[in-house]
Amino acid sequence: MLDFVGDGVLATDTCANIIYMNTAAETLTGFSRQEALGQPLEAIFQVIDVTSRVTRANLARHVMDTGTPVALHNSALLKTRDGRELAIEDAATPLLNANGEVNGALVKFHDSRYSAENTARMAYMAQHDSLTGLLNRYAFAERFEQASALARRHEKKMVMLFIDLNNFKEVNDTLGHSVGDSILQALGQKLLGCVRSTDHVCRHGGDEFVVLLSDLTEHEQAFAVVDKVRESASELLRQEGHWASLTLSVGVSLFPNDGETLEALLPHADAAMYRVKTGKYQKSSI
Q1: Which residue in 111, 144, 232, 249 has the most C-beta neighbors within 10 A?
Q2: Coil, helix or strand for 75?
Q3: 64-95 pLDDT tens trace
Q4: Triad 110, 106, 14: Cα angle to 5°
Q5: Which of 181, 207, 215, 270 is catalytic?
């Protein structure tokens, strides 16, 4: 069964000589099972410390001497048979017989690059919309809290834009969901191009987007961004003839005038967007 797991597994006897090696351990170390059996652990599993570059003490001997396991850690480099250095995470535990006596050790290890990549990928997925790559509403809420705290501290203004695509459902139903997805992806990139690195763009859901313009001296600074968003979106929709029936509605709410929390500002911007959509909008005092 151990030949089907992704982690490398090595077992030693009480002299710290290898008595078992699984397929993953062969792949990671570069040594075959036949070559490894009977060899001292350090001859096959050569590990150095990442920072000090000092060869680490024999892990099997350590856990057998202490009688306690060593938890997974990632400050090690495995020197493979061909001379490469592979970043790994490894752990070890003493093996006990039926009488509770130590009769060997088990060492487990894996390529930490994949662990780091998976962790980074999962963190990204947890904060970003899977279709557009924009912030999702949960990550946007975190960014809002950070930005609002800075705005209060430095007496800055912020503006929230609530953006909706008009006639999107009709275009989506007529041309298909793949075209609809392309529209949302393209618009998301256009929105990112309209703001600064200190601002935040979120796909709020469906064909709705929210933009937080932070670190403003005056609310009036948002006018240029709103105009840029409209112009950029119009240009995008004109370029694709079959998207031409789409238009954009943008609603605005002001921090701190309309509220100081996300729960207060989002509904305000949403309501303003609806007034724009229905033609009941009167230009804001910003």
Answers
A1: 144
A2: strand
A3: 999 999 987 777 899 999 999 998 999 999 99
A4: 145
A5: 207
